[in-house]
Amino acid sequence: MGIVALKTKTKKINEQPLVERQTVYSTKNCNLWYGNHHALKNINLDMKEREVTAIIGPSGCGKSTYIKTLNRMVDLVPNVKTAGVIEYRGRNIFSKDFHVEELRTRVGMVFQKPNPFPKSIFENIAFGLRIHGIKNKQLIHETVEKSLRQAAIWDEVKDRLHESAYGLSGGQQQRLCIARSLALEPDVLLMDEPTSALDPVSTLKVEELIQELKEKYSIIIVTHNMQQASRISDKTAFFLNGEVVEYDDTYTIFNHPKDHRTEDYITGRFG
Amino acid sequence: MKANEEQKSPVQRLLDKKNKNGFLGKGEKAIPVILFLMAAVSVVTTIGIVLTLIVETFTFFKQVPLAEFLTAKVWYPFSKTDASYGILPLFIGTLKITLIAALTAVPIGLAVAIYLSEYASEKVRKVMKPILEVLAGVPTIVYGFFALTFVTPILRAVFPSLEMFNAISPGVVVGMMIIPMIVSLSEDALSSVPDSVRQGALALGATKWEMTWRVAFPAALSGIIASIVLALSRAIGETMIVSIAGGSTPSASLDLTTSLQTMTSYIVQVSTGDVGFGTTIYYSIYAVGFTLFLFTLAMNILAQKISRRFREEY
Ligand SMILES: Nc1ncnc2c1ncn2[C@@H]1O[C@H](COP(=O)(O)OP(=O)(O)O)[C@@H](O)[C@H]1O
Ligand SMILES: [Mg+2]
Fold this sequence. Notes:
The structure holds 2 protein chains of 2 kinds. In chain A, strands 6-7-8-3-9-10 form a 6-stranded mixed beta sheet, sandwiched between helices. Chain A has one domain: P-loop containing nucleotide triphosphate hydrolases (Rossmann fold, 3-Layer(aba) Sandwich). Chain A has helices at residues 3-9, 63-70, 100-106, 121-131, 137-150, 154-157, 170-182, 200-213, 226-232, 250-255, 260-266; strands at residues 23-34, 37-48, 52-56, 80-88, 91-92, 107-110, 188-192, 218-222, 235-240, 243-249. Chain A has 11 helices and 10 strands. By secondary structure, chain B is an all-alpha fold. In chain B, strands 1-2 form a two-stranded antiparallel sheet. The termini of chain B are far apart. The A-B interface holds A 71, 73, 76, 101-105, 108-109, 111, 113, 115-119, 127-128, 130-132, 164, 166, 177, 180-181, 184 and B 193-194, 196-197, 199-207, 210, 214-215, 218-219, 312-314. The complex binds adenosine-5'-diphosphate and magnesium ion. Magnesium ion is lined by residues 63-64 of chain A.
């Protein structure tokens, strides 16, 4: 599918914002090294609340690295070094007095491969509440139901809440993982190729879900799939070799890219 | 189509030669037979042992009523006039040792396993694991003398009322002996929990400990329980340490500070003594051995039940 087809599908979503949207993430001169490998180079990006920001680019260009930096999951990799500043709601996430646990409670993450806990469906959702000290049974029950409904999976699992999450299909597991994040009422949802392991029907369901969720949440999604980016996002950042080549409204990126490398990529000439 | 021998490549010639020999050499057919015989030997041996145990146990119960064995509260086979064969004291002796061993080994073993799997750096793990393996290879008689000549004197310095032979010292040392087993098997169970599951927990804002305790540990629970039960089965069957440091006084008392006898150390006492073949005492070691066998069998069945109940699959 070439640029022409994409054009027809891409709507100008954010032409006239009714209210001023606040910045959730502001990345300033962010650099990251895995040992000696310079994986992120001088990233500068501002992301607004209640928008879907897509991150696209060829394999190995640093998309996952960047999104994992936003909730500091990248800290788990040994020998990682970062420089620069990423502000989440005005606070530098690298500063000592911003605990990663607090950051990760506010910023949910959905992984490429569904990774439910080896527990019941109910306990998967309740887990986040429990670790944060919520003991009120009724509140937990209500939140589990609400989150599953929000993730559009309630009807499929309501009769088997106490069965293992491993009995669900891949697509259901991924929506369960989304529900698991939603239970903590996060401010931002980070999604790293959330549909790449799913079949087309499940993919569509997750995409519809993202459209609904953006009413309440800011969503940053890495995707390999350019149709997906054009369908669901408001802003798109094109990464190449650890750099941001272009960042703009999705409509602009897909219809009037300023950089020829962006155009080459979205028309499928490389990557 | 017959290719000239001269034109054939060396590889072809060798393959032809193998073909002429029937392709699959004679060894290929003999191997499953040999392997089967090996398997048969071990199965037959096991059956033989169990049968001997059962037959001799029956002989014992022809001389001593089962009711006495189960209900009498005294184990005193060496009396010429009124010998008493109540298993209870030996059973309690074994139970005391196993309990103390469990109290020592389970917390320490699990702590070390969790440390190695979740917290230790690659370097530390590389040093610790071989040390634990060495520890697992120390002969139990060495542990026995360690209990008697090192642990007991220290304990007696702190608690003067402790007897020279007691349950605490050998119990603790049996615990130390089974720690490597618990660590090794539990660590395996923890390491086989996929990292993606751990990341899922951390990404929800769980601390490392919350992740470990509420996700990794429960996910590994069936393997961990299996490791504990296996280790405790070894504790139950442990012989040298209790023979050396526990004494040889069958006692139904729950006092941990006094001399005791376990099922295994009774068997050692009789086997190494000069008891005549065919006497009731001789047959009693089979009855005791059979009880021990049932004890460990029950443990294993229990373990399977428990681990099935807690199984969390991934
Ligand atoms: N854990 C790691 N250790 C070392 N290098 C890594 C690690 N993860 C990713 N990289 C390297 O960093 C670069 C960016 O990787 P990644 O962010 O996963 O790319 P993408 O998600 O865009 O495919 C790649 O060159 C990759 O080889
Ligand atoms: Mg990636």
